[in-house]
Structure to design on (185 residues):
């Protein structure tokens, strides 16, 4: 693989990842940390290294162990972030490992993955832009947490003047008997 081919593959990956990142962060409730993009570029670099250097199976197990430890030590990711992470890892492996003779097939796979990602975004998160403002609300744990979703909404409606809203429980503090809620309206 010569330098111009490597640069072309890297630019294809960069364009794909930035496009997916743009669509992943259009949802107002959550955003994906931009540093997660580095995972794709690191995977791209590691795969390039693995194609150039003879490496034993022990390195693969070592990397798996490192990623497993990091998974249990890091904060939990949202489903959106996990799907984004899996997509950029897949794209980075495809970009570096696919044979140069079939470059048009590589571009086809890139387009298909991006198209399905964007299509699923519009199918699943079509109403996500409905709520573009947010505020926090703190309620008593005993009064709120034992309720089902319908009664929780009624409890929130009594406290706020919004007709249409969505909510997410941020934290539960049982010592102070409080539930912190993020309201999207």
């Amino acid at each position: 693989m010569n330098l111009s081919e490597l640069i072309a593959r890297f630019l294809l990956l960069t364009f794909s990842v930035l496009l997916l990142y743009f669509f992943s962060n259009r949802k107002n409730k959550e955003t994906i940390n931009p540093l997660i993009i580095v995972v794709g570029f690191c995977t791209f670099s590691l795969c390039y290294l693995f194609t150039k250097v003879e490496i034993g199976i022990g390195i693969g197990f070592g990397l798996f162990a490192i990623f497993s430890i990091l998974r249990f030590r890091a904060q939990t990711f949202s489903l959106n972030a996990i799907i984004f992470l899996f997509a950029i890892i897949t794209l980075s492996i495809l970009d570096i490992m696919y044979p140069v003779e079939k470059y048009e097939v590589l571009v086809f796979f890139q387009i298909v993955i991006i198209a399905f990602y964007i299509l699923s975004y519009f199918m699943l998160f079509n109403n996500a832009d409905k709520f573009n403002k947010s505020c926090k609300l703190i309620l008593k744990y005993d009064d709120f947490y034992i309720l089902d979703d319908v009664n929780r909404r009624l409890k929130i409606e009594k406290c706020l003047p919004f007709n249409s809203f969505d909510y997410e429980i941020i934290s539960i503090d049982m010592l102070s008997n409080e539930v912190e809620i993020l309201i999207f309206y």
About this structure: The two ends are 52 Å apart (CA to CA). The chain has two domains: 3-128, 131-184. The beta strands are 134-140, 166-173, 178-184.
